[in-house]
Amino acid sequence: MSYTNLRYLMDRLDYLRGEIEAERISYSEIAELQELGSKGLIPDDDVLLLQWAGVPEHGGRDVMNEPIEATPENMKRHHDPNSAIESVIAWSPTTGEEYSATPGDYWDADPTKPLVDSNGEPMILVRKVTRMEPVT
Q1: Does some domain include residue 1?
Q2: What global pTM score does this model have?
Q3: Would you say residue 15 has pLDDT above 90?
Q4: Which residue, 14, 38, 90, 95, shows the most beta carbons closer than 10 Å to its own?
């Protein structure tokens, strides 16, 4: 199943949450949740869906678990310009600074040299997942 439409994905997650809460979720819907969880498409703060998806605590995506060095080369390799809900950024565990993966920002720099924060410390790659909801 394709989840390229953010609104469809968020509606689907809401539907699956409702099925869990009503205690009538099917095995195929649990399998769907597991697929969504393995792709990182369930927000990290949605504990109920993450538990039902079988995703380990911290989403199994802990940025401190074997971090990838934030070089322009790695940024390009992991950048997905078609993703509406997640992006790869360079992040500093020390200062919390973030650099986007927008082409042109620093993509022409030495591709193997790590990006550094304002303290000169190397940054790591993290996947930033955004949950968009309409204002009501």
Answers
A1: no
A2: 0.43
A3: yes
A4: 90
